[in-house]
């Protein structure tokens, strides 16, 4: 499936009107907080797989921002919300930037779509300056509740997820790219329902509360196994 307008209307974004306080809004707010907290203000920031630009757009006042995506349609849409950002059509596996060009690199739920994610992470290592920050997120194969969902688990629902890997493999890749892990955590259990017959809204409140609290406060505290995404923050050595 190509990453075109159809993809953005049928997957992660399908229930999103981009209204304030939607799940999508909170997610972008959370990742923006992390980027500002760990990245040096005023440095160059690159978001790889920037999609519709709502995350990188939040960071324009704090960094010199760049957005890279393979989807020309998405890049065009991104200009509406990230007008001060430099937009480039580029694959994550062959970035058109010089060595050590960025102080912060964000790659949020992209590596699972790539045929060669190890090449992309090596490229990120190349373009990240010493002392720079990597913020990466991908589906979490070690989620405690993944067995409850079985083949219905959220990570399996997108046919473009061709590189789902256990946490150990992702950590090995970032170490090979000369990054040192700072934080490893998750985003909570939001892939409801997990239990048959119990109303979905009740499960959303029960299972989603820890992840929601983490998103609201902006402080990552959930252990890796306590959520559907693996999230890591690493520093380039």
Would you write up a description of this structure?
The chain is an alpha/beta fold and 237 residues long. The chain has one domain (5-236): 3-Layer(aba) Sandwich (Rossmann fold). The chain has helices at residues 5-10, 23-38, 54-58, 72-78, 117-127, 146-149, 154-157, 167-176, 200-217; strands spanning 44-48, 64-69, 86-89, 102-108, 128-139, 179-185, 229-236. The chain has a seven-stranded mixed sheet, with helices on both faces. Strand 2 (64-69), helix 4 (72-78) and strand 3 (86-89) form a beta-alpha-beta unit. The longest helix has 18 residues, at 200-217.
Q: Which terms would index this structure?
A:
9 helices, globular, alpha/beta, 237 residues, seven-stranded mixed β-sheet, Rossmann fold, 21% strand, 7 strands
Summary?
It contains nine helices and seven strands.
Describe the secondary structure blueprint for this structure.
Layout: H1 5-10, H2 23-38, E1 44-48, H3 54-58, E2 64-69, H4 72-78, E3 86-89, E4 102-108, H5 117-127, E5 128-139, H6 146-149, H7 154-157, H8 167-176, E6 179-185, H9 200-217, E7 229-236
Parallel strand pairs: 1-2, 1-4, 2-3, 4-5
Antiparallel strand pairs: 5-7, 6-7
Helix pairs in contact: 2-9, 5-8
């Amino acid at each position: 499936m190509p990453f075109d307008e159809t993809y953005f209307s049928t997957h992660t974004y399908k229930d999103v009107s981009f209204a304030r306080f939607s799940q999508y809004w909170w997610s972008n707010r959370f990742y923006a907080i992390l980027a500002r907290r760990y990245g040096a203000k005023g440095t160059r920031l690159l978001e790889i797989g920037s999609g519709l630009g709502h995350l990188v757009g939040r960071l324009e006042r704090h960094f010199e921002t760049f957005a890279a995506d393979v989807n020309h349609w998405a890049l065009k849409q991104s200009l509406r919300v990230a007008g001060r950002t430099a937009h480039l059509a580029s694959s994550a596996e062959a970035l058109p930037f010089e060595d050590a060009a960025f102080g912060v690199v964000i790659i949020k739920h992209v590596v699972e779509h790539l045929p060669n994610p190890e090449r992309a992470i090596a490229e990120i290592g190349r373009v990240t300056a010493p002392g720079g920050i990597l913020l990466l997120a991908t589906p979490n194969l070690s989620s405690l509740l993944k067995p409850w969902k079985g083949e219905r688990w959220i990570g399996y629902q997108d046919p473009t997820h061709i590189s789902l890997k256990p946490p150990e493999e992702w950590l090995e890749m970032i170490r090979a790219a000369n990054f040192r892990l700072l934080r490893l955590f998750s985003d909570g259990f939001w892939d409801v329902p997990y239990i048959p017959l119990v109303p979905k809204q009740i499960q959303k409140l029960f299972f989603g509360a820890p992840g929601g609290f983490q998103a609201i406060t902006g402080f990552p505290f959930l252990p890796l196994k306590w959520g559907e995404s693996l999230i890591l923050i690493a520093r380039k050595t």
